[in-house]
Known about the structure:
This protein is mainly alpha-helical.
Amino acid sequence: MDLQGDLMKHPHDAYQHLRDTAPVQRIAGPTGEPAWLVTRYDDVRSALADPRLSLDKTNAAEGSYRGLSLPPALDANLLNMDPPDHTRIRKLVSRAFTPRRVDALRAPIRRIADGLLDVLGTEGRTDLIAAYAAPLPITVICDLLGIPDDHRKDFRAWTDELIAPDPSRPQAAKQAIGAMLAFFTELIAHKRRHPADDLLSDLIEVRDSDGDRLSEDELTSLAFLILGAGYENTVQLIGNAVHALLSHPELLARLRRDPSKLPEAVEELARYEGPALLAIRRFPTEDVTIGEVSVPAGETVLLSLSAANRDPARFSHPEQLDVDRDASGHLALGHGIHYCLGAPLARAEVEIALAALLERFSSLTPAEPEPRWRPSLRARGLLELPVEYKIAGPRA
């Protein structure tokens, strides 16, 4: 199977073919090394919660796909850890993303959304990714971590190089990693000198008061992961959701009339076009059977969240966007102990972003026949979303 070609250009068609013919398939991974791709819902969900499938790269067999190559100061993060280290680190930050904490952020998130829409004016044309879907989550997560405005401008360019590397610029990803490491090293040093009421200052205090709870590399890696995941996933969720609604104008009109349906719509939109094609790679610590296929210890396993979410064995008519369906159990944000830490925040941001957008504009239509998707196996998102818009009426 041409992973790079079929999955990038037509992922849902490719996944449907694999579910029907080879639900556990040996493939060439994103950088050419061998891996096993799993596409059926029951297999993916079970594997996500299987403790024998390790995220620790030391359990990878020689020659297997290992994912991004990062320096130690960025690599010691939750996406490369198993218990007990994973449990220890996650516990340190989980309280920042509880539903109660997120509820307290809803009003500030709405103010940010309204401010971004104010800039657009009463009518016109814009790229909704650049003008809205990207700056909203980067502002929210940077405010939470305590990152000043003047340090935010380069972050999207750096993450683009990691998520969707340009084959013609092989050194760009390494340069982006180096720039991010320098950024976080300097930021943490600054926060040590000037602590504030923010999550990063709290984590630095934990590190400096009790090094057994958090090493310096773990501190830097955690800041890197929170900023990266908190930004990237939500950009895709917002952009993909708006694109899906623009492709279903009757549903867009319905949600404008009845915004109380937005929480259910967010779940269905995440199932229908989630932010990730694949979960983070895993390595069996022993020979395991997935579906009816035996996967040797150490070989890379790639679990397709996108394919699982469109498995007709779990969701009836999965290719249809249906906000009246029960979309609970979708895997867009993972499952098991590695379930997305920031899921409550991501859900709130998407719901608020859509509510503000639909309330503000009486007319919102695509400005191009089909937007361009990011050429990536790691993230399912749009490069741009050109729209034409018109305001609903005068604002107070």
